[in-house]
């Protein structure tokens, strides 16, 4: 199978993620869309790694996954805190830098 | 002897300082102090005069150097005095008439609570006026020049609670300032031309300067003289200046200060002699003013304003004479001195009449006063005869000479000037006769004085009260004695001066003199003058002596109405200067606020607006931040691709 | 090394400021007396400076010089010439009167008790002394950088003086007045900061030029003038002009010259009369003084190049300021516009480049300081009695308070340069000096004297004469303290008007020096030139 197809898939996933970040209000969904974008990038990296025949891309993909995991930990915690205090997870409600 | 010249100024100045700073303690004695100091200044002048007579004609000038005033580089102004025959004449006139008027004021201002201050101002005036005539350079003269302006301002506005007085004072000062501008430019021109502005060097080397420069200096000096001497076109302040107490009108606005312009031109004779164009301007101004003042004098019903018009006209004669050059200088000064006597006497007489008539000034409400105020009547009458040039009296001698000199100017100019002077003499005879008839003859047209809203500070007559008929009475001795002395001067001064041409010989070393070639003989001129005099008196008698005079003024012809409004001088100034000036300042105030300040405030507002708009981008919505991030990333990628493609 | 007299003259008021600020809240009166005492001590020191100064001696005397920021060639260099001596004397003379006139201006308002943290009285007098210290050292500094620091630093105390202390009448909880005042203070600050920043660029530029050519950069005025004279330091025309403009802009804002003047009416109108005097009579003089000392000496060629434009701007200032003064309805703003007109005369005198013009301009700075102080302080007394700054609210004051009216008139006559009073001497010198080089400019400037008569006399007529207005009927006359302020000022005006020689003796040599620095000679009289 032509590896370029994976790139198309990555671009598609990235676009879906970007659209989700921009359109959706729910913080959790926004979050998931961010993850989708990250993973689209990962897919692209791995694909390039395969196309060029070296491991650099795969290594970066692992880094990205680690960073994403760390980000999820902190980000979800914040979202939960906001939800607790406001009973809403809408990003638009949290427009001021205070609770 | 020269060491006491400074005292002429110092004594009255001391009086002014003490009286103005002394406070209420001096209220009871102040007027005596002021009078004594004025008199002692006169005594010093007399001593100097006696000394001067003891020396020969060419050796009579005295100098006193006090101290260096402003020394900066080539600019040297000293406080130094020069007393020559010309200055001496003025010193005696100023301190002499000044002292008499001090005495008169003791009675006239008796009931004024601010009498002490009045005497302080009078002393200040004397000091400034004497300084003006004994300064040895133009800048020190300028100090006296503005000093008399200040004294005049203070005295015109002496009854400050009257808005009209305050306005008149302000007007006098500001119009005078326009003239002063001329004097300061003249001094600057002298400095850049001669490197000095002391009389000696400037007048000595005046001949070396170019005619253009001399003309410029001359015209600027003329502007100064117009301001101070109330000549056209700066004449408008003098009539209003009559708001001041009458002794002030007599001293400052008739006898002395207003003649300073004549002094200035005569003193600067050397400059004018080298600038025929400037001289032409001077005689034109003189001729126009002498007719202007006379016409105004005919129409006024206010006795003081009629006399003010007459003053303007008489000074016009002097300026005319001074503009004629060496033919006329001596006669200008001679007329100045005789005029000082009779005009001061006339004003004091008018003051005495007002004193007896509850401060009424409208001549239409006088009439038949000769029986009630005999001394005033006689002295006023002698002054009247003197001013119209009745043969033998002072005015006859001096005015006749001026008319003669005007013809002697020669050419068409001479004929025009001479005719103007003759016409002026006729009108003078007319309006003075009118004043005389309205005031002292005819039937009583007295009106009850309305009770004033504000308690008047004018010296109230004993019978003053709301709605009462006036009870005219002769004034106290302190007022009549000065009038009698001045009447003597009005009668004899001219004859004395003309005896053996003594005045001519006295002044000639300073001013120089030349006889012109008159196309008419002296006798012809005298006869012509007599003829127009008779015509003037006859017309006045026909109008005011033969038939009763209405108390309210008739509407009158167009000219009469214009003359009542001072020939529309104020209207002209208003339309030409005041109104545009007001629009200009208002416009500038608006401009300053909206444009000059507006540019700066606008810049500030622009920054404020910009930052307000920028702030909106930072709205806190995560998704709008995300859009800008995407947008930014997209632009970056596009740019990278574009660069690669190129 | 001898006693650092110049440093002492600046340090004493600074110490006074600290001491006054430290006085406890309850002891207000003590703070006032302390401030007065320190200002008098400064006056004594300034008198000593004037006595020790030898008119015919070196250009700069009583000099002090220490290394300060060696890396940038900044030195602590002080020295005075005759011009500086005259202005230091002016400052030292005026400040005690300012303090005395503002005796009650900063008393706490009723119902607002001062406490440890809020001590307005102490602050007011401390700030005044602080301004004095900074102004004095600006007059003394011969190092451009040192001058610049204090030129800018004096904005800080001035800002608080303008913004923090208004007329008593408006003070009580009047929001509109507070807003106006704060606007005025900010405007003052922004204008002067903008000027100062441009000057800073020029100061740095000057450093770059000197360090390029002399090896090590320097800010020392004397060193730069010497190096330029010796040909070691040359500037091409463009550089010199740009640097000149940078300096001149700052000084023109401070002076203030049209069209950079609009901060002055606001600042003078909103602040109390003593502070207004401080602004126009003392602080603004630093601007015109600096034109004379720095612009002309550092950039002689550029000064000549810019002269035509500056002369025109000065003439506009004269006429424009006077016309606007005529149109004012507010007494203080009227005096402010009159000052703008007078600053036009000063700048005109400086750039006429004649001995008479520059001596006249220096005397003008001194005389304008005294005459404006007299007029403005009496106006302040008047305003404090009635509680209004509007001319229309007065009338007939002369009848109820003759001494007040009399002193007001004398102040006004000084403002219109009546001969016999000090300002006449300086104004005439400026006019003559200008006329001998630019006759047309001299004549236009002469128009200013007519307009001056107009605005002064109209003001006097409307406030002091006429029927007594009901609102002023109970107005008390001047009190002893107020007489003690006005009396000496009027006496000074008279003395300097009749006998200005002591002042001209000090100023003339310095002006001669400046003239030779800019390679200018007085024009010869026409007759002499013809020979």
Helix count of chain C equals 22
C-alpha Rg of chain B (nearest Å): 31 Å
How would you sum up the major sheet of chain C? 2 strands, antiparallel
Largest sheet of chain B: 2 strands, antiparallel
How does the overall form of chain B come out from the CA principal axes? globular
Quaternary state reads heterotrimer
What distance lies between the first and last C-alpha atoms of chain C, to the nearest angstrom? Answer: 53 Å
Report the span from N to C terminus of chain B: 105 Å
- Tell me roughly what share of residues is in helical segments of chain C: over 70%
Task: Give the averaged pLDDT of chain C, no decimals.
Answer: 90
The number of helical elements of chain B comes to 24
Q: What is the tally of beta strands of chain B?
A: 2
What letter string, H or E per element, gives the SSE order of chain B? HHEEHHHHHHHHHHHHHHHHHHHHHH
Specify Rg of chain C, calculated over alpha carbons. 22 Å
How are helices and strands ordered from N to C of chain C? HHEEHHHHHHHHHHHHHHHHHHHH
Shape verdict of chain C? globular
Biggest sheet strand order of chain C reads 1-2
Flag low-confidence runs of chain B: 452-465
- Secondary-structure-based class of chain C equals mainly alpha
Percent of residues in helices of chain B: over 70%
What is the beta-strand fraction of chain B?
Answer: under 5%
GO molecular function, one term (chain C): oxidoreductase activity
Organism (chain C): Streptomyces meridianus
Keywords (chain C): Membrane, Oxidoreductase, Transmembrane, Transmembrane helix
Membrane topology (chain C): Multi-pass membrane protein
């Amino acid at each position: 199978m032509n590896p370029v197809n994976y790139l198309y898939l990555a671009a598609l996933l990235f676009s879906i993620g970007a659209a989700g970040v921009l359109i959706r209000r729910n913080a959790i969904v926004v979050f998931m869309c961010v993850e989708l974008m990250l993973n689209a990038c990962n897919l692209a990296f791995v694909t390039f790694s395969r196309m060029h025949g070296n491991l650099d891309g795969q290594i970066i993909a692992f880094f990205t996954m680690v960073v994403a995991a760390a980000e999820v930990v902190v980000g979800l915690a914040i979202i939960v805190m906001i939800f607790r205090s406001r009973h809403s997870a809408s990003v638009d409600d949290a427009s001021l830098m205070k609770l | 002897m020269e060491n006491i010249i400074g005292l002429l100024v110092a004594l009255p100045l001391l009086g002014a300082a003490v009286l103005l700073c002394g406070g209420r303690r001096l209220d009871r004695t102040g007027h005596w102090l002021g009078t004594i100091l004025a008199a002692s200044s006169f005594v010093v002048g007399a001593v100097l005069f006696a000394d001067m007579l003891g020396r020969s004609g060419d050796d009579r000038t005295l100098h006193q150097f006090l101290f260096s005033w402003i020394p900066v580089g080539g600019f040297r102004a000293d406080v130094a005095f020069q007393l020559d025959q010309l200055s001496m004449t003025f010193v005696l006139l100023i301190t002499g008439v000044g002292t008499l008027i001090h005495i008169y004021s003791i009675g006239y201002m008796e009931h004024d609570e601010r009498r002490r201050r009045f005497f302080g101002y009078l002393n200040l005036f004397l000091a400034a006026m004497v300084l003006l005539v004994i300064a040895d350079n133009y800048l020190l003269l300028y100090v006296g020049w503005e000093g008399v302006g200040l004294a005049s301002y203070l005295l015109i506005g002496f009854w400050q609670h009257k808005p009209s007085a305050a306005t008149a004072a302000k007007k006098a000062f500001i119009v005078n300032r326009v003239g002063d501008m001329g004097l300061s430019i003249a001094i600057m021109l002298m400095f850049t031309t001669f490197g000095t502005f002391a009389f000696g060097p400037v007048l000595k080397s005046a001949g070396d300067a170019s005619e253009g420069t001399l003309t410029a200096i001359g015209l600027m000096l003329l502007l100064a003289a117009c301001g101070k001497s109330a000549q056209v076109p700066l004449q408008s302040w003098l009539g209003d200046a009559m708001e001041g107490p009458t002794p002030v009108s007599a001293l400052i606005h008739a006898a002395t200060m207003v003649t300073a312009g004549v002094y200035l031109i005569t003193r600067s004779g050397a400059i004018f002699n080298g600038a025929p164009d400037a001289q032409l301007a001077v005689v034109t101004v003189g001729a126009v003013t002498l007719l202007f003042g006379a016409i105004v004098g005919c129409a006024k019903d206010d006795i003081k304003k009629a006399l003010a018009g007459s003053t303007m006209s008489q000074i016009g004669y002097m300026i005319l004479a001074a503009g004629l050059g060496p033919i006329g200088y001596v006669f200008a000064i001679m007329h100045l001195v005789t005029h000082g006597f009779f005009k001061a006497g006339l004003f004091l007489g008018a003051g005495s009449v007002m004193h007896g008539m509850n401060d009424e000034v409208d001549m239409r409400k006088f009439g038949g006063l000769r029986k009630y105020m005999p001394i005033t009547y006689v002295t006023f009458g002698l002054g009247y005869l003197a001013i119209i040039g009745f043969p033998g009296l002072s005015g006859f001698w001096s005015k006749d000479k001026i008319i003669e000199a005007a013809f002697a100017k020669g050419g068409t100019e001479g004929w025009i000037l001479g005719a103007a002077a003759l016409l002026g003499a006729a009108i003078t005879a007319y309006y003075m006769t009118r004043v005389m008839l309205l005031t002292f003859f005819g039937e009583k047209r007295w009106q009850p004085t309305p009770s004033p809203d504000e308690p008047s500070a004018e010296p109230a007559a004993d019978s003053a009260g709301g709605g009462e008929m006036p009870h005219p009475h002769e004034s106290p001795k302190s007022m009549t004695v000065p009038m009698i002395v001045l009447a003597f001067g009005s009668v004899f001064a001219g004859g004395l001066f003309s005896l053996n041409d003594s005045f001519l010989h006295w002044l000639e070393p300073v001013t120089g003199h030349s006889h012109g070639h008159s196309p008419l003989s002296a006798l012809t001129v005298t006869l012509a003058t007599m003829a127009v005099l008779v015509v003037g008196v006859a017309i006045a008698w026909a109008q005011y002596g033969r038939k009763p005079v209405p108390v309210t003024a008739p509407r009158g012809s167009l000219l009469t109405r214009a003359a009542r409004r001072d020939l529309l001088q104020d209207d002209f100034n208003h339309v030409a200067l005041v109104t545009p000036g007001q629009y200009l300042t208002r416009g500038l105030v608006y401009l300053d606020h909206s444009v000059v300040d507006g540019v700066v405030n606008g810049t500030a507002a622009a920054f404020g607006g910009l930052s307000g708009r920028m702030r909106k981008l930072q709205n806190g919505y995560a998704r709008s931040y995300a859009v800008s991030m995407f947008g930014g990333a997209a632009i970056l990628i596009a740019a990278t691709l574009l660069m690669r493609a190129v | 090394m001898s006693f650092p007299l110049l440093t002492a003259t600046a340090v004493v008021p600074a110490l006074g400021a600290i001491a006054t600020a430290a006085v406890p809240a309850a002891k207000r009166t003590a703070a006032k007396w302390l401030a007065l005492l320190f200002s008098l001590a400064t006056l004594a020191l300034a008198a000593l400076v004037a006595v020790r100064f030898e008119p015919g001696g070196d250009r700069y005397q009583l000099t002090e010089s220490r290394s300060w920021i060696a890396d940038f060639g900044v030195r602590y260099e002080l020295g005075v010439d005759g011009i500086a001596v005259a202005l230091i004397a002016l400052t030292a003379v005026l400040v005690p009167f300012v303090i005395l006139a503002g005796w009650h201006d900063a008393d706490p308002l009723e119902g607002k008790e001062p406490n440890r943290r809020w001590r307005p009285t102490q602050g007011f007098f401390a700030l005044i002394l602080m301004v004095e210290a900074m102004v004095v050292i600006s007059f003394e500094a011969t190092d451009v950088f040192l001058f610049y620091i204090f030129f800018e630093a004096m904005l800080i105390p001035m800002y608080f003086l303008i913004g923090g202390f208004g007329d008593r009448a408006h003070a009580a909880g009047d929001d509109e007045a507070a807003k106006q005042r704060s606007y005025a203070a900010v405007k003052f600050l922004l204008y002067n900061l903008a000027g100062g920043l441009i000057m800073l660029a020029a100061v740095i530029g000057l450093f770059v030029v000197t360090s390029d050519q002399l090896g090590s950069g320097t800010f020392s005025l004397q060193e730069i003038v010497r190096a330029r004279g010796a040909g070691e330091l040359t500037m091409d025309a463009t550089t010199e002009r740009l640097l000149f403009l940078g300096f001149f802009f700052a000084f023109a804002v401070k002076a203030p010259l049209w069209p950079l003047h609009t901060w002055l009416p606001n600042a003078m109108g909103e602040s109390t009369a003593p502070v207004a005097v401080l602004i126009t009579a003392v602080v603004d003089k630093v601007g015109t003084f600096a034109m004379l000392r720095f612009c002309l000496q550092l950039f002689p060629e550029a000064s000549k190049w810019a002269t035509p434009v500056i002369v025109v701007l000065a003439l506009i200032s004269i006429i424009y300021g006077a016309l606007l003064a005529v149109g004012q309805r507010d007494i203080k703003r009227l005096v402010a516009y009159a000052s703008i007109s007078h600053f036009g005369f000063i700048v005109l005198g400086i750039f006429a480049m004649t001995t008479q013009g520059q001596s006249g301009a220096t005397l003008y700075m001194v005389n304008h300081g005294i005459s404006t102080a007299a007029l403005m302080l009496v106006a302040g007394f008047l305003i404090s009695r009635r509680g209004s700054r509007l001319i229309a609210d007065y009338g007939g004051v002369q009848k109820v308070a003759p001494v007040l009216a009399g002193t007001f008139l004398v102040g006004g006559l000084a403002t219109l340069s009546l001969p016999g009073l000090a300002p006449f001497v300086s104004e005439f010198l400026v006019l003559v000096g200008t006329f001998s080089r630019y006759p047309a400019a001299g004549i236009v400037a002469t128009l200013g004297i007519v307009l001056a008569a107009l605005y002064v006399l109209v003001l006097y007529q409307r406030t002091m004469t006429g029927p007594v207005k009901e609102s002023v009927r109970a107005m008390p006359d001047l009190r002893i303290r107020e007489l003690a302020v006005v009396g000496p000022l009027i006496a000074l005006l008279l003395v300097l008007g009749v006998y200005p020689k002591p002042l001209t003796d000090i100023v003339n040599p310095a002006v001669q020096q400046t003239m030779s620095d800019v390679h200018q000679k007085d024009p010869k009289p026409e007759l002499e030139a013809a020979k």
